[in-house]
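**Sequence, structure tokens**
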Amino acid sequence: MSRTPIILSWSGGKDSSYTLYELLKDENYEVKYLLSTFNGNNRRLSMHGVREALIEAQAASIGIPLLKVYVYEGNNQEYERQMEKTLLTVRSEGITTVAFGDIFLEDLRLYREEKMKSIGMKCIFPIWDKNTKELLSDFIEKGFKTVICCVNDGYLEENWCGKIIDKIFLSKLPSSVDPCGENGEFHSFCYEAPFFKTDLEIKVGETIYKPLQLNSGSHPTPIKDAGTKGFWFCDLLLQA
């Protein structure tokens, strides 16, 4: 049976990693590219603040080519313009489906579906509507290793930055925080996964705080008002 070629929106975190895990088991699809968006000025992953080199290292270990979208002006109009340009190029190769790791945010799903439809593409959501606590528990059980790279100060304090996602993390997470951070509570970076050829050796560097700047394109905008004033980012580095 011929598999449908697809692209996976890739943040390098737990949700996109678990989504890839599910897709690699699915005989209906073949993931041809990982697609990541970077701030073109500082070469860091948009929203997560992860260095471009770390996302490149993940893609190399997985063995799937990485497509990069660079945003310089930091506004949604530029993001949509650059994303459309990249996707139209991929569509010319016969790839018309994009996979996303969203779980339950209806507005975000509708936005993605509308944007893809406007350029003749469609979306799939392999982990949609999964129970987030069960998903994270399964993620941990399957041997994924992930570190928190960014936290929203409306939900969590600075000391959560740099924590490893494991059973202890899950047991101590406040009840007000979704286990997968689906409301924008935190973001993560995966450095070990069942499909990595070589696990990544990383270290946690400096932690910095950045005040919220709406529409700047440099911060993960909160999904809902939680009294967010800014975000804590910890700099992740590849071990030499």
User: Anything to note?
Assistant: The first strand starts at residue 4 and ends at 9.
